[in-house]
Amino acid sequence: MPDPRFFDSLPALTVAELAGRIGGEVMRGGDRQVSAIAPLGSAAAGDVAFLGARKFVVALGQTRAGCVILPAAAVEVAPPDASIIVSEEPQAAWARASLSLHRPVPMVEADRDEVAEDGTVVFEPGVVIGAGARIGRGTRIGANSVIGPGVQIGRDCVIGNNVSVGFALIGDRVRLLSGVRVGEAGFGAAQSKAGPVDVPQLGRVILQDGVTVGANSCIDRGAYEDTVVGENTKIDNLVMIAHNCVIGRNCLLAAHTGISGSCIVGDNVIFGGKAGIGDHLKIGEGARVAGGAGVLADIPPGETWSGYPAKPIRQSLREAVWLAKQATGKARS
User: Fold this and answer.
1) I need a surface site. Which of 46, 216, 267, 300 has the fewest CB within 10 A?
2) Tell me: the pLDDT tens digits for 20-64?
3) What residues contact 321, with CB distance under 8 A and at least 6 apart?
4) Cis peptide before 309 (omega within 30 of 0)
């Protein structure tokens, strides 16, 4: 279930009612009531899940979801006790189901005395704080910043000017420099006959103690699970961290680094400027990614990779030298 501090749950629907709203066909269990969406792996009896690709057939067979949305070809492998909605665009149908069952908590401005732990909290001019937010003692919120409903910010934090924070839990001694965006919806779209459909982003952002985020950097909330930045990690200006990423402790991310969705980064990893990381990758503890590298494969712990596509640095340098010699030789001939 999405965090109720950030998302309202709408009235439950029968499977038949939901199918009518999302354009699917009920194969069985139309009278069952459902109240939330969830991935196959974590869905419960009142949840709606979907089969997006054949590689998730095993997860489909093991799911506890009360209702599954899937293509007609996969009906036979669905759990026998689950209700079934058939759709030839199951992810798009699931995204539409989200709109019928969940919505973000609307922004209602709170009384500052209610959200501040004590009188040491400083609100500069133009700050807007949503209902249900909590701000720890000694924290300063910069001019024209917006703190969304339900957001929790710890003690002795510094939030710069024109920062927006939503759907987030933030630890102590965190610094968000000017223009930072925390908790915006991650980029995800499902194909449908009517065009791309935004995939629901029902997760959170968790910034642990001592994190610094540089000016104009963006950290997206999770699609369903959380985006997490570990303790004492330091992020430069103009860095992008996509939804569902988990960044370890004591990492350093130089400017223009971009980390695609669902990556897992170990502790003490360093990213040089303009490093780009493909989605669903694992970067091992203590690894180094050279500036400008384009990472398209997992990096083992402790290794340094460079180049595009990135490879272990010695291999990358050898290939660069060989290529230079080949080019020089052809030019002379």
Assistant:
1) 300
2) 999 999 999 999 999 999 999 999 999 999 998 878 889 998 999
3) none
4) yes
287 and 259 Cβ atoms separated by less than 8 Å: no
Out of 102, 243, 256, 280, which one is annotated catalytic? 243
Q: Is 82 in contact with 68 (CB distance < 8 Å)? A: yes
If we measure between CA atoms, which residue out of 207, 239, 240, 204 comes closest to residue 222?
Answer: 204
pLDDT in tens, 108-124: 999 999 999 999 999 99
**Angle, nearest 10°, between helix axes 90-101 and 15-22?**
110
Query: For residue 331, what pLDDT is reported?
Result: 55
Residue position matching structure tokens 């540089």: 214
Distance from chain centroid for Cα 169: 14
Distance CA 81, CA 83 (A): 7
What is the predicted pLDDT for the residue at 332?
57
2 contacts 36 by C-beta, under 8 angstroms:
yes
Give the three-class secondary structure for 15: helix
Q: Give CA separation, 144 vs 51, 95, 263, in Å.
A: 43, 33, 32
* Catalytic residue check, 243: yes
Please tell me the pTM assigned to this model: 0.92
The amino acid sitting at 27 is M
